[in-house]
Amino acid sequence: MNASTLIAAVAVMSMPVLAFAGGSHDGGHGQATPIGEPGYAGDVTRTIAVVMKDNYFEPEAVNVSPGETVRFSILNEGRLVHEFNIGTPEMHEAHQREMRMMVEHGVIQGGTLNREMMKMDMGNGHTMEHDDPNSVLLAPGETAEIVWTFSAQANLEFACNVPGHYQSGMYGDVEFKTSDDMQARAR
Ligand SMILES: [Cu+2]
Questions:
Q1: Would you place residue 89 in the very low, low, confident or very high pLDDT band (cuts 50, 70, 90)?
Q2: What burial letters (b/e) apply to 115-129, b meaning 16+ CB within 10 Å?
Q3: Exposed site from 5, 57, 71, 170, fewest CB < 10 Å?
């Protein structure tokens, strides 16, 4: 990788808004993003416990309703660093390129996560900080929470974009309940 590619990639990584909006060309009805947005704790309707292992998630899929606010309670039970990230398949693909850089720079090394290095200036005013609201990066044994409000139905997955993990199956579908499902439940 040459210097200009490096700087370009770092610039993308340290601009959460850009990373957050990545791959969202399908618009929707005035929605800023089809993936939803950070939610308020007071709106949480339920908590979904997500366990990260080497290299898969439990559960393998989650069900949500359009507009629902969910608290994800995330635990890394594996021996490797893992990510929990809500996004479209295109967003995950873009993020995997950024995370490859974190490995190349030694920020992620198997089971260790160098948070000090993530805060370091890369020499161009940018850092490798991993602070998008739709994502957390956890070392073994760490826990985190994400409160997320889903928007209308979208093609979403939760995924780990640590290099190789998505490819080995570390992702799951966010399945949206249809209005038919909800009527059936109300009966
Ligand atoms: Cu992983």
A1: very high
A2: eeebeeebeeebbbe
A3: 5
CA distances from 117 to 9, 63, 104, 109, 152 (A): 16, 36, 12, 12, 37
Q: What is the mean pLDDT of the chain?
A: 84
Whole-model pTM: value is 0.80
Q: Rounded to the nearest whole angstrom, what is the distance from the C-alpha of residue 104 to the centroid of ligand 1?
A: 16
Helix 3-13 to helix 89-104 angle (10° resolution) is 120
**Which CATH number do you get for residue 181?**
2.60.40.420
Give the mean pLDDT of 123-139: 89
State which residues form the domain around 151.
3-186
Count Cα atoms within 13 angstroms, Cβ side, for 77: 10
Number of separate domains in the chain: 1
- What are the residues whose beta carbon lies below 5 Å from ligand 1 (ion)? 55, 82, 160, 162, 165, 170
